[in-house]
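Quick one: structure for this chain?
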Amino acid sequence: MVRWSLVRFLKVNSVSQGSILQIGDNQTVQPEAKVLNVQREVAHDNGNEVDMDAYASYSREIPEVTIHEPVTMSVHNECDYIQVGIVRILSVSTSGVVQIGQNERIEAVSRVKRIRQMNTAVDKKQD
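Got it. Here's what it folds into:
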């Protein structure tokens, strides 16, 4: 049986970085985010200094999960709809998915690399 999703009010403040807000039914959702975050104690920018290709974590293949056990499921829906009054969401980020409706498959990928570059030199002042 197909079920309807009824939402009276939806408020979402922010959807960012490869995320998806899907209202309605869908077959497959594939959000993807590649984030390279460089934090420096002293800022400098020469235009094109960050290359994601230099990091293997952005190109490495992600193995597919396979289920080796039989799964038996029995569903009895007393009603042909799901009803919700109010949904409030502050933020959906980095390959996140919010969906109101049906979906068969979600393949979300988030690859985040954080680099901190701090000055290690210590001023040695003698009074």
